[in-house]
Design brief:
It contains 8 helices and 4 strands, in the order H-E-H-H-H-E-H-E-H-H-E-H. It has about 160 residues and is α/β, with parallel strands linked by helices. The protein has one domain: TIM Barrel (Alpha-Beta Barrel), CATH 3.20.20.70. Helix 1 runs parallel beside helix 4 and helix 4 packs across helix 5.
Amino acid sequence: MMDGRIGTIRKALDKNNFKHLPILSYAAKFASSFYGPFRDAIGSKSNLKTNKKTYQMDFRNSNESLREIGLDIKEGADIIMVKPGMPYLDIIKNAKDEFKIPIFAYQVSGEYSLIKNGIKNNIINENAVLESLVAFKRAGASAIVTYFAIEIAKKLKT
């Protein structure tokens, strides 16, 4: 999220014989309303002194996110995280196509809450969980970080 950070980390790792340790970049972390439930849960919303939009991507500007991803890759990033994931499937797809490195999608608390509440209130059915995760894979995500992980793991065991 900060210019030069990946390069500094890469140099320090290489200097200390960790040349093969991969770096995950948060170059595509968007200033999003979808973080709300998490911020509420940990109480950080009321503690924020500044606006996080000063160091997170503007959700309206896909070109900036791809430029920042490219800069982090040049500095040594091996993996890119797109956060939140669902509203930014186009970023996942474009980054995967352009840079050909692993892209991780992070399905954040707001995305999770929308789906859970939709299921709970019979607005959508539980297949929406799998549908949302498959959408990440279709867009090109190499891995998905999701609050649904435990539920999915339990279903796979049965």
